Amino acid sequence: MHLINHPSPNFGPRPDGAEIDILVLHYTGMRTGQAALDRLCDPQSMVSCHYLVEEDGRVFKLVDEDMRAWHAGRGIWQGCEDVNSRSIGIEIVNPGHEFGYRPFPDIQTSAVINLCRDILSRRAIPSDRIIAHSDMAPDRKEDPGELFPWAQLAQHGIGLWPARQDTPHGAGNIADIDAMLIRLGYGPAQSDKNRVAFQRHWRPSNIDGKADQACADILAGLLAARDQ
Ligand SMILES: [Zn+2]
């Protein structure tokens, strides 16, 4: 695939023997893609990512995948607390909730899908380790948010999604939601934040943070799809 080289100085070595088996998707949350690109390449900012996908579908390569980029920060997924060391980070241009959150254009989504498929063709990244930034840091992050087309990515084999036949009504128990979220990968603290992050990713039509039957069923379906 066509990549535009735009190197960032903000990276370091991965620890010896670190597996690369997590993929974190972000939105940039800045007014323009150019502003985000500048910040991700500014040595003062101490932030970076491996790839940035513009709204017009251009894909910039900032940090080599073998190197540790600085995109994830504090958080946890499936017990891993140093997500940067094990992950590839993709920043997707969108002003975000702060500056005018808007739908991701189709051409941008297609570019994200192509990029993810390219990465997954080269790397063994399990589907339940393809996550939103908000999944690993639900107490402080909202990106890439409820408008991000996760279902469309799943149609292309990217990320965990329940098979419809696996999620009949009543498949999950509402009382088990918080425990199921932890089984999926969320951290043990702040159940309400976990529920909101889960809804942004897997049930974006209603992000109220409440435990309901639909969430329980989706979660049961996700765990069944993963553990089958
Ligand atoms: Zn982020």
Topology, element by element:
Layout: E1 4-5, E2 11-13, E3 22-27, H1 33-40, E4 51-53, E5 59-61, E6 67-69, H2 83-86, E7 87-92, H3 96-99, H4 106-122, E8 130-132, H5 133-136, H6 150-155, H7 177-184, H8 191-202, H9 213-227
Parallel strand pairs: 1-5, 3-7, 3-8, 4-7
Antiparallel strand pairs: 2-6, 4-5
Helix pairs in contact: 7-9
Walkthrough of the structure:
By secondary structure, this protein is of the alpha/beta class. The strands form 2 sheets. It has a 6-stranded mixed sheet with strand order 1-5-4-7-3-8. The chain has helices at residues 33-40, 83-86, 96-99, 106-122, 133-136, 150-155, 177-184, 191-202, 213-227; strands spanning 4-5, 11-13, 22-27, 51-53, 59-61, 67-69, 87-92, 130-132. The protein has 2 domains: 1-160, Lysozyme-like; 162-228, Muramoyl-pentapeptide Carboxypeptidase, domain 1, CATH 1.10.101. Helix content is 34%, strand content 13%. A hairpin with a 5-residue loop joins strand 4 (51-53) and strand 5. The model has no long low-confidence stretch (mean pLDDT 95). It binds zinc ion. Residues 26, 133, 141, 143 line the site of zinc ion.
Gyration radius from CA atoms, angstroms: 17 Å
Number of helices: 9
Q: Tell me the span between the first and last alpha carbons.
A: 33 Å
Bound molecules: zinc ion
How big a fraction of the residues is strand?
Answer: 5-15%
The helix-strand sequence is EEEHEEEHEHHEHHHHH
